[in-house]
Amino acid sequence: MGKIFLLLLIVVPALEIWVLILSGNTIGVPLTILLIILTGVLGAALAKKEGLNAIRTAQMQTSQGQVPGGVLLDGICILVGGVVLLTPGFLTDAFGFFLLIPQTRSVFKAFLQKVFQKAVKSGNFVYVSNNRWNRKP
C-alpha cells in the first residue's frame, strides 16, 4: 500500500504538470488559470452543499435509531473530493468532482465498502467498541 501511495505522489503531480502545460499551449495561459480557479470555486460550493446534505441525512438517520453507515462513506468521499479539488490541476479536479457528484460517488462508495469488508474479513481492520454505557457490571 505504501508503494502505491509513493507512486501516486510521483506520478499524479507529473501528469498534472503535463496536462497544465498542454492546456496552456492549447487554450492559453490566462484561460487555463481561469479554469483552475473556476473549478476550485465550483468544487468548494458543491462540497459544501453535499457535505451539509450528508450531515442532515446522518442526523435524521441517527434520530430514527439507524446507523448512518452509508452516509459516513458519503462524508469520507465528500471530504476527499473537496480536498482534492483544492489542488490545482485538471486530473485531480475531475477525480474530486467524481467524488462530489452523488451518482458517480456511489461507484466509489461501492469500492470502499468492498475494501472495508475485505479488510475486516482478513483481520486487518478490527473494530473495538469502547462504549462504557452498554457494559454490564
Order of helices and strands: HHHHH
How many distinct helices? 5
Strand content: under 5%
The proportion of residues forming helix, as a percent range, comes to: over 70%
List the helices and strands and how they pair.
Layout: H1 2-27, H2 29-63, H3 69-86, H4 90-100, H5 102-122
Helix pairs in contact: 1-2, 2-3, 2-4, 3-4, 3-5
GO cellular component, one term: membrane
Protein name: Membrane protein FxsA
Organism: Salipaludibacillus keqinensis
Task: Summarize the structure in words.
- Helix 1 crosses helix 2.
- The N and C termini lie far apart (42 Å).
- The model has no long low-confidence stretch (mean pLDDT 86).
- Helix content is 81%, strand content 0%.
- It has five helices and no strands.
- It has helices at residues 2-27, 29-63, 69-86, 90-100, 102-122.
- The radius of gyration is 19 Å and the shape is flat.
- It is mainly alpha-helical.
- It has one domain (2-122).
Write a short abstract of this structure.
This protein is mainly α. Helix content is 81%, strand content 0%.
Which features would summarize this protein structure in a list?
137 residues; mainly alpha; 81% helix
